[in-house]
Amino acid sequence: EGVTEFLPVSSTGHLLLASRLLNTPQTGFVKSFEIIIQLGAILAIVFLYWKKLISSVRLWKNILVAFLPTAIIGLVFYKIIKEVLFENILITVFALLIGGILLIVIEKLHKQSLRSDDLKEKDSDIDSVEKLTLKQSFLIGIAQAVSVIPGTSRSAATIIGGLLVGAK
Fold first, then answer.
1. H-helix or E-strand containing 13?
2. What is the pLDDT of residues 28-75, one digit of tens each?
3. What's the pLDDT at 123?
4. Which of 26, 117, 130, 161 is the most buried (most CB within 10 A)?
């Protein structure tokens, strides 16, 4: 979990696949363990960026706006996500495959668009979260909301959303 936190891989998808392959029953302990290791990864991010987090109101606004689409989809479709998506291992495998392919394709397209601009720095290029508008943050949040599907990486969805709104 900690090693892959910054990589565009789905820890939830891999936990589901490993659990299924190892025939591990989903007991209360196993579910708690999975939540605790993911909480550890989140706390590592907070520890790493705590100065930036406590000093930037704009950053918090962007984070909250980007979180809204996932929160709404999660609340509205909770039962479907839990009973259908998390129970179907083929969905997880398919999401891992499609997510990887999309990440490669969109990155290549993004690099080609940079080359077509003669690699000139543009004033509109976004190189930090603080430079995102609330609209761009919301659009990234929409991309990130796809990660409610197990096997879809939150970081990959965020990277794809960021590239699509013009972030570096």
1. helix 11-21
2. 898 888 888 888 888 888 898 899 888 989 999 999 999 999 999 999
3. 47
4. 161
Locate 25 and state its tokens: 């029953």
The whole-angstrom distance between residue 14's C-alpha and the CA centroid of its chain comes to 14
Report the distance separating Cα 144 and Cα 46, nearest Å.
19
CA 158 – CA 54 distance, rounded (Å): 22
Long-range contacts of 31-40 (CB under 8 A, 24+ apart): 37/1, 37/2, 38/1, 38/11, 38/12, 40/1, 40/2
**DSSP label of 82:** I
Phi and psi at 145, nearest 5°, equal -65, -25
Q: What is the pTM of this model?
A: 0.82
pLDDT tens by residue, 87-114: 899 999 999 999 889 988 988 887 887 7
Identify the CA nearest to 159 among candidates 38, 147, 40, 149: 147
